[in-house]
Specification:
Chain lengths: ~220, ~400
Amino acid sequence: MSNVIEARDLRKVYQMGEVQVEALRGVTFNIARGEVVSIMGPSGSGKSTLMNMLGCLDHPTSGEYVLDGEPVASLTGDQLADIRNRKVGFVFQSFNLLSRQTAITNVELPLRYSGVSKGRRERAIEALKEVGLGDRMTHHPYELSGGQQQRVAIARAIVNKPAMLMADEPTGNLDSKVGKEIMQLLLTLNKESGTTLIIVTHDPNIAEQTQRVIRLRDGVLDGVA
Amino acid sequence: MTLAQAFLEALESLSGNKLRSGLTVLGIVIGVASVIAMLAVGRGAEASITGSISGIGTNLLFVFRGGQDESIRNERPISLSDAAAIADPFAAPSIEAVAPILQANREISYGGERTTVELNGATPEYFSVQNYELTEGEFLNEEHLLGRASVALIGPEAADTLFGRHDGITGETIRIDGQPFRIIGVLASKGGGMFGSQDNRVIIPFSTAQARLIRRNTRDQVDVLLIQAVSGEAVPQATEEISQILRQRHQTPIGADDFTVFTQQDLLTTFQSITGILTIFLGGIAGISLLVGGIGIMNIMLVSVTERTREIGLRKALGARRRDILTQFLTESSLLSLIGGIIGIIFGWLISFAVGQIAAANDTAFTPVVGADAVALATIFSAVVGLFFGIYPANRAASLEPVEALRYE
């Protein structure tokens, strides 16, 4: 099975005033297509930085990163935006839905940026049905429960059929029952469509449900399970 | 993202904060409305001045003593014999009639009433040249002139002041500087002109004025020659003929005329340039308020960018390029100023209309004119203001780093 992610010696240095902070100090790993991986580590371990790299939100200072066959480490801002749009689906801890838009227009948003003009609505409806929200499509976020909002966010993440789903503490703002449901939904989507799933989490219970855990400590890998 | 989508999203976002958008739009509304109203008032002033000058007749010329060049000394006055020479149809075929005038302000009285009027010593040609009509009585004739008769024609405004009416006063005797004059006619109203009221006037025979009321240094001196050309088209030709005759008679070298020929067209041009400057001045002041409105837009857009940092981060994470964010915020700022522009045009038109109504209620012939060019100018200018003042905030939004924008609380 081919690799969706190939990271070679990723490094990231931040300039904090006078001081240079090394958030990542050379991280190398692969993630195979369809794999479910969790990234764990204490605060300050470089976990968020790694997630930003893998999600193409930020450039590494040095190193190689190939996402779904495309080397992305040295792409410009707009090229990265294009890669994010086509290949990465984000699910955030705080949902990040546009509050003035209905569920369906929220889900349509990535399609707008990829220039899809026909069949946008149909694809958005399909995605919403996949996450079990077929009956809440014209509701605004404030009319939905936390779990439902996260489902809308997941629908938005999968609407463009990305190569990987990147979930940052997807259950962090939800109670444990709803959290389990959301986890289940993510795993089901992985099983049905074969989309690679990467979950950044603190929660060992969630990490348990993934096939592999990438542990980070002080910017380096702390053993790959 | 297509423009139509950007437009809809901008509309949605602006209506999400109605009070704020409304207040921002208000700045542009005031700016555009004042530009429109000021230009309309200027245009109206120009039209009413042009109209009243044309009312005097476009084939009229005035000849004054004195050149346009300060350096000319020993200017000869215009004389009655100059007038006679210009009136010669062989020497000056383009000239229809010549009316020499003596002008001065004098006090007139009747009973206990007194007032100051413009006193004109004139010849019978004066009435045809000036296009005067009478409401009663008769014009001056040659006999009055030869006999230095103590007769006068009175304008309606002067008559109203003295008699409280302007009909049935022919035959009354008024005093001009204490000397008695019998009224032989009343002039029809010509309305307010550019040189004071043409109705507050008393006209007496030229010879009478010369001998008794308006004395000048030399005996046959004339203050102004009013000259009527045969037609409006003949005015330049008439100017040339007059100049040649006077140069020859005054023995002045070329380029050192000691007289000035002024045409109705010159007058029109002068006033048009004055009202033009006035319009630019008023429009400029109004333009400043539009500028202030634009700064208001920029301010609000900057606040909006800061407030929506997370949203911008999210949009970028979902694949929005620089251009998409730029378009989004520029559309919003342009939409603000466009809406302001449209409402402002309507308001400006209403203000102009109200000014016209007030002027009409005060019997002033003045109608502000809202020109299509003023509307076009205001529309383009307000859209440009929206774009220009939107560029900085939009650029700021578009340059946000997705990671930092997403982390922003």
